[in-house]
Amino acid sequence: MRNDELIEPRIPKGFRDFLPEKESLRLGLVRKLQAVFERFGFLPIDTPVLEFAEVLLGKGGGETDKEVYRFTDHGGRDVAMRFDLTVPFARFMAAHLSEVGLPFRRWHAAKVWRGENTQRGRYREFMQVDFDIVGTDSASADLEILLLMKESLAALGAERVSIRYAHRGVFNAFLARLGLEKASVDVLRAIDKQRKIGTEKTRELLALIAGPSHARDILDFIRVEQTPALTLTKLTGIVGDGVEGIQRLAHVSSALEQMDIAGSFALDPSITRGLDYYTGMVFESFLGDLPDIGSVCSGGRYNELASLYTKQHLPGVGASIGVDRLMAAMEELGLTGAGPAQGSVLVLFLEDRLLGRYHEIAQALRGAGIAAEVYPEKKKLAVQFAYAEKKGIPLAVVCGEEEAAAGVATLKDLRSRESFEGLKPADLTGKARELLR
Amino acid sequence: MRNDELIEPRIPKGFRDFLPEKESLRLGLVRKLQAVFERFGFLPIDTPVLEFAEVLLGKGGGETDKEVYRFTDHGGRDVAMRFDLTVPFARFMAAHLSEVGLPFRRWHAAKVWRGENTQRGRYREFMQVDFDIVGTDSASADLEILLLMKESLAALGAERVSIRYAHRGVFNAFLARLGLEKASVDVLRAIDKQRKIGTEKTRELLALIAGPSHARDILDFIRVEQTPALTLTKLTGIVGDGVEGIQRLAHVSSALEQMDIAGSFALDPSITRGLDYYTGMVFESFLGDLPDIGSVCSGGRYNELASLYTKQHLPGVGASIGVDRLMAAMEELGLTGAGPAQGSVLVLFLEDRLLGRYHEIAQALRGAGIAAEVYPEKKKLAVQFAYAEKKGIPLAVVCGEEEAAAGVATLKDLRSRESFEGLKPADLTGKARELLR
């Protein structure tokens, strides 16, 4: 490469830089979720970004494989970047079971990578926030994940949500009754499309797969009735109350009623989570003000996942928040808050000789809990004020040779253009605090 | 693979799982640093983990290349995982200069990957926390990074630190005087070893490279004198005060004196940062109580880095905290704090029928700011109490059929074994708060 040939500062398609405003939003969002998780007694973990390909893909195969970033490292190891936080968690549990004990509640906020098509606003690098309870197959754990979905979304400002749940076992029993086990993948895909293409087109699609009579049966099955109790009665009528999932749905929905929060939840048999590895209850959640962006937090019960790595039975239930989709939604709904935390006071730079003094003033302000920064060099005041304006800094400190010699400084309110002269250090801090209030 | 063949849940060498205690420590550490950065007006950014190999390695070459995780993705793109946070930041600045404006202060806490030898406690996946000021070549920015190094370490509990600084330009001028420009890499390596092998062995090494007379000159040059002023006088005597770095060192060290914090800092000409890309001041920092673990926060001024991507002159200065080394040090010094945030109240599970009630009780506690969790299923009380003990939960709520019917519950203090019976919801919350105080 010749020295004068620049490299274009581009990044691969589907990857993104996060500028301060957006990264502040993401950090704030994760921090709010962390506070919720801590209230629920969930503990944080972390796992490597790179795992052995065998560990990540041993089971997955097919559809997933093509999307995985997989390569051979220097040591000849077949490795891959994680594509979700669930498979690494299953591996983690098999490896650390005796250390963490059961039941174990974990949360994990981290990036995952999928080399999928970048159309339709999908990214190849995105952040997920997962929370799971493992070591119990109880209704209580299922309910707790539902509650946590609601609390998490509420903490982010989304109070009006519709969290929808169903049971994969009930759905499978229904398909078995229709003799459609073999077409289950196609049926699941058709149902997943319903929200987008509408009931009539779904009926046509299902008729092609399973015939018009079964298409009608399936649409009857997945319809949400006027109350959870009516939906449950219908499902019970179709598959019989001997199906384990029926009891689970009854138990969880009656607890939601009892807790007087049933309004945020709906038993919705059309929720299946497509091809995911769920075996019991499944969850999706929609924002009341933006239902069209799809589910922002989804999950379910997976009773067989860790069986790839251990003979110990490790039932689990959890959900995952799609942070990127949620951030897009929050921006659309104006829930993004005040933007990045920014310096509140700019100490102007007038004289090289006063370098130490400027930083002393800034340190004194920081010591009082006020964000402060020193403009880093002597430039025209207009340039320094323009910097404050661009960064939204409301106050400036001015200190020239004479003021420094007298041990004082001037505080300027850049909003009102008021000046407060001759302030001693303690008065400066007090005045700044008063003006920032 | 046969179904009954388990996959070993192992992870590649040099990679680690973080269990809750350690991950809580790491999250807490990053959060404390974030608070410091915000007080200094630094803004968070994020960049992709995968970049085009050309972008990351265009310049680096040689030594770095072998350590980089680099591969061809599905689309035939030559990509690599970032090995530090500085090169991506240079690329970020070239791409987003007009959006962020100058001067720009950024921090970034994220993982980086290097496939290096895992001996000597090195990891292949580790977290760095970087902070930089770009767009100015001023002494003020150099000083600010030094202050921020001190404040960052103090926020993590390390009050006794020795932050050492020097100037690469002064060192280069010195080597030029000796006619040793061509041997500079070997000389830098020998000096870097001094802390480990001692002065005499370093003298022998330098004598082999540059002859005994120059070895003596170099050891004279890098020796720390009794005061920064004396060290500076010596350096000035050797290279002359026409060298730009001499003025910079004088300016920064006098400001540190003026701010009355010079005790935490030392002008130390033996600090060179080896082969790094620094062009001006260089920094390292050592813990007063654990100097042997080496520098826990290092950095310097790099005035040429972004020139790979843009013709715009983008001077910068920054430092990087090695979070893993620091965590090891904090553990050794007992500075790790109280461990993971844990549930403070366990609601025992006695009756399946009371599922909703148990979660109502937990929700009421959480609403009052008290972490609470429900034991997820009906098990022997001994098992539930053992869980509370393992997790360090001090309080338990007991509520059976009769109590539920009467709208009350019992609170047990698992430390004192005291019981408080017949508590209405509001009293339960109040009592729990009182006992947790």
Question: How would you describe this protein?
Answer:
The structure is a homodimer of 437-residue chains. The first copy, chain A, is an alpha+beta fold and 437 residues long. Chain A has two domains: 20-333, 2-Layer Sandwich (BirA Bifunctional Protein, domain 2), CATH 3.30.930.10; 345-436, 3-Layer(aba) Sandwich (Rossmann fold). In chain A, the strands form three sheets. Chain A has an eight-stranded mixed beta sheet. Chain A has a five-stranded mixed beta sheet with strand order 13-12-14-15-16, with helices on one face. Chain A has a three-stranded antiparallel beta sheet with strand order 2-4-3. The mean pLDDT of chain A is 91. Helix content of chain A is 44%, strand content 19%. Chain A starts with 19 loop residues before the first helix and ends with a helix. The first copy, chain A, has helices spanning 20-39, 53-57, 62-65, 86-100, 139-155, 168-178, 184-222, 228-239, 244-258, 323-333, 355-367, 381-391, 401-406, 425-436, and strands at residues 43-44, 50-52, 70-72, 78-81, 104-113, 125-134, 161-167, 265-267, 281-287, 297-302, 316-322, 345-347, 372-374, 395-398, 409-413, 418-423. Chains A and B meet through helix 1, strand 1, strand 2, helix 4 and strand 5 of A and helix 1, strand 1, strand 2, helix 4 and strand 5 of B.
Brief description of this entry?
The structure is a homodimer of 437-residue chains. Chain A is of the alpha+beta class and 437 residues long.
